[in-house]
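Discussion board: Methods & Data

I've been asked by a reviewer to show the raw model output for two of the constructs in my manuscript, not just the figures. I'm not sure how much to include, so I'm pasting the format here to get opinions. Each protein appears as its amino acid sequence followed by a line of discrete structure tokens. Is this the kind of thing reviewers expect to see in a supplement, or should I convert it first? Here is construct A:
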Amino acid sequence: MRAPGFWHAPPGLAARALAPLGALYAAATRRRLAAAEGMDPGVPVICVGNINAGGTGKTPTVIALMQRLADRGVTAHVLSRGHGGTAEGPLRVDERTHDAAEVGDEPLLMSAFGPVWVGRDRVATARAAVAAGAQALLLDDGFQNPALRKTLSIVVVDAVAGFGNGFCIPAGPLREPVRAGMARADLLLSVGPPRAQAAFREAWGDAVTVPHLTGVLEPLQTGMDWEGLRCLAFAGIGHPEKFFATLRGLGADLVQTVALSDHQPLTAAILARLERDAAAAGAQIVTTEKDAVRLPQDWRRRVLSLPVRMRFGAPEVLDAELDRALG
């Protein structure tokens, strides 16, 4: 069950040598999940997580669910650990006063769409959100965290990367074996274009034992004409090349691309280099919506951002699961 790609190649010698450590990692995850019964916060808990480590499309999925629940009249609050943030929490994110260094870039981005909380203690954060009026909780990540009893667990996977070589960290990209993850999941969302979806089904279809939903990230129509625009594009996300490919698909002329690590701080040195290179090339600096929230305020008018939104291939599959979760 393998398909071509970075993680998809059959396990090599290094992966096989590291396999015993991967088995230990998987066993530790299994023990943690079995150690405690999750707390019931009194409202539905919808978890958006993954089996792979790294970016799979969780943040745009959470944003889409926030909007979908709001359309149903359900006030959903997002719970996040706040990657890279300094806040211990529970802290409700305020996009007007907080910055990414305090709360993390993803919570800051999501806070533009609805209430978002950050906190290391999932139970305390859930209680704070419910006390503030949450009618449902959207758990951003936390699929392998047993602190809260989950009503609906959605596993998100990148259709291009799939589940890699099928090995657990450090031998492969997985937090736990696919079979174990599928046993706890209620829905699988694979994110990618049709060709990648077909390859994912061929490679991993036999392992998918829950309803399978597909999704694709599409540029938000803002009226911006990208055709022929000379761009210096940078991205500090899980897979920067996807962002660059999206810009090219819109007709932008990418004269330079800069791939940063996920959540990488945008230091004065990095920004000065980007500005210098863009000026030399006569190009406009462009970045992702998530990277844009990490920019200093005086930079936000100088950099264009390209927002993307999740479109579900068969939304009725998701709606059925949401109906079940909401009762």
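Construct B, same format:
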Amino acid sequence: MASENPLDNEMSDSVFMVCPLLARAGMLDRAVEHFEKMQTLCRRPDGLYRHSPLAEVAWGRGNAFPLLGLALTLTHLPASHAGFARLKAAYENLARELARHQREDGMWRQVIDLPEAWPEYSCTAMIAAALARGIAKGWISDSRYRLQRRTSADGAVEGVCESTGKLTSLADYIRRKAIHGVDARGGAMGLFLATELM
């Protein structure tokens, strides 16, 4: 179904939700094509991703989804494939741009390039997992990335953005609620990061 109609809704999330599935299913050309479509729709001139074409906002998970999606897709895309170099370059470029916006405490923000935005757990875990995989695979070799502990012994997390569909303004993204406590979305991304670091 994803090969014929990926249901991307023009959101950068689909780089994570569609491209790795296509690559894992052996539909390598289709995975590359879908990424290139989403890059055209969502990549801003500065290298960050807008969540959708409705607003120029570099939402945290709206950038984590493409980076992690690229890492997962590259894992199943042979280096000999014609699209591998393009996707690897896109991964490296986004990783480099995100590194410029990482906070001193190792976190990324709810809106990546807005200094007053709050530190967001789930996008940080996703970005860190994608970077950990890239370092392990030899796609990047940078040691500038840090992540401080933001998970308690009982599984509570600090600062996870609530579910977010396509929004039309920076103010709409800034108003998203920060969840503090046990959260399935943030917890899952934290566990995924832990498996990448093992």
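Answer (T.O., handling editor elsewhere):
This is acceptable in a supplement if you add a one-line summary per construct. For B, something like: DSSP finds eight helices and four strands in the chain.
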